[in-house]
Task: inverse folding
């Protein structure tokens, strides 16, 4: 990178990094991932520095890049959850629609209660961190002192247990959801 490019990028970074990180934190509801998004935006800026230096609105370019990175991250998260949790199932739609207050106050045997009863506290915590808290396997593995592969395997075992509790869901996963419930992801 040329010295003029470094000066230009450093000025943009000082002026815009905080704004981009705050915007991403609000959009993603996760300040750690927001910091990653902001860093990724400036990585893109480095890769496209020549174009950015002659752009009519470099700050607008950075913000649009941030929006694209946020949407990309959300799409990846959705694909990931679909793959590992079969989000098209009624069970997980219900689970995602409940907040923790509803879970604790409900007197009915809800799907969430069935899930909590079927799993050990450690398994429920693992599922909660991955699904509700939107933590990555890397984050959960680090917290538990296990490998990412072990975290993924634990989730696989949790899913098997849940299929025992909700056997009707197994059919939907193998054959795919009914045509009326397929989304355009």
Result:
């Amino acid at each position: 990178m040329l010295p003029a490019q470094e000066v230009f990028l450093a000025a943009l970074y000082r002026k815009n990094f905080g704004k981009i990180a705050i915007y991403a934190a609000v959009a993603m509801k996760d300040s750690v991932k927001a910091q990653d998004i902001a860093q990724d935006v400036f990585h893109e800026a480095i890769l496209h520095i020549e174009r950015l230096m002659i752009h009519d609105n470099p700050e607008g370019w950075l913000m649009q890049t941030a929006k694209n990175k946020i949407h990309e991250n959300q799409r990846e998260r959705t694909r990931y959850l679909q793959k590992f949790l079969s989000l098209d199932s009624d069970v997980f739609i219900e689970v995602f629609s409940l907040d923790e207050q509803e879970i604790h106050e409900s007197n009915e045997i809800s799907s969430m209660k069935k899930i909590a009863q079927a799993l050990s506290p450690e398994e429920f915590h693992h599922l909660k961190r991955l699904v509700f808290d939107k933590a990555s396997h890397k984050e959960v593995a680090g917290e538990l002192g296990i490998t990412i592969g072990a975290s993924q395997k634990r989730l696989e075992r949790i899913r098997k247990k849940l299929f025992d509790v909700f056997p009707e869901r197994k059919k939907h996963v193998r054959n795919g959801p009914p045509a009326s419930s397929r989304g355009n992801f």
Q: What stands out?
A: Residues 87-91, 93-109, 172-185 have pLDDT under 50 and may be disordered.
